[in-house]
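Hi all, long-time lurker, first post. I run a small reading group and we've been trying to get comfortable going from sequence to structure in the token notation. Rather than ask abstract questions, I figured I'd post a concrete chain and ask someone more experienced to write out its structure so we can walk through it together at our next meeting. Sequence below, copied exactly:
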Amino acid sequence: MTGLFDSTSGVLGRRLFTTTWVPVFVFGALVTVLVLSATGWSETRGRWDSLSADLRGLAIVLFLAVTVLLTQLFAALRPGVIRLFEGYWDTVPLLRRIARRCARRLDDPVERSRRPWSLPAPEEMLPTRFGNIIRAAEQEARRYGMDAATAWPRLYVTLPETFTAHFAAASGAVDLAVTISSLGAVFAVVCGVFAAVALPWYAAVCCAGGGVLTCWLGHQAAVRAAVAYGELIRTAFDVHRWLLLDAMGLTRPTSLSAEREQWRQIHQVWQRGVPDAGQAHLLGYPPVSEQQSDQGQVPST
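-- Answer (accepted) --
Happy to help. Here is the structure in token form:
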């Protein structure tokens, strides 16, 4: 069995193994126990004992294979799940109205006056604490004239290895908490209904209650993990943003106003392909020295 777990870890990778496969495996084990309880333990044990060793091993391998497939599927769906956790509910009209009400309720004028960076702009408030923590962190880039969504993929590849290691740990904590919370909600609904049909009433209550509790605890853990995750996003823009300028071969600005204008023109190039008319000099290309200019000249004939 240890060899099987080691093989599974090798196939999935360490992060996916810890943040997704382990919760999925526990979820699958609980569902299996629930189904076997409805079938009858004595009957199930008799069938298991009647199987050969090869068939038992095959059953275990098949179970692990199913959990690996579910892990890959959930990993592909998780970005969308995280958006739901953040509160991007605009696609559903009813949820859109609920989202606006929740966003107004979460806006705290006192906290905004004391620590304005801890909340998004009033017009950009989201309906969940989880979403507002991350959005507030992303707005840090605006202090310098940067757009976080556009700049982050480019900035991330220039960050120091020590920073990316800490960031990966914080991101993994968010992924794990979201996975646990999501699976708890699925367990409450699916297994609660199954238990209500196939098992005594108290089993349905335990399944639904346990799933809801797991979902709530996972959500609270996700909110806490988002705080550390958001602080690292802030740190990346506050401390390391000029590494991106160095990687692009552009000069560093000498003032905050110059930096804001430089990033604005850089974003124009990224998004439109060209800077504003007459503003190309603000991109920060280094001046050409006389020696470079002479080397670039074509000798006359």
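A couple of things your group might point at:
The two ends are 79 Å apart (CA to CA).
Residues 201-248 form the longest helix (48 residues).
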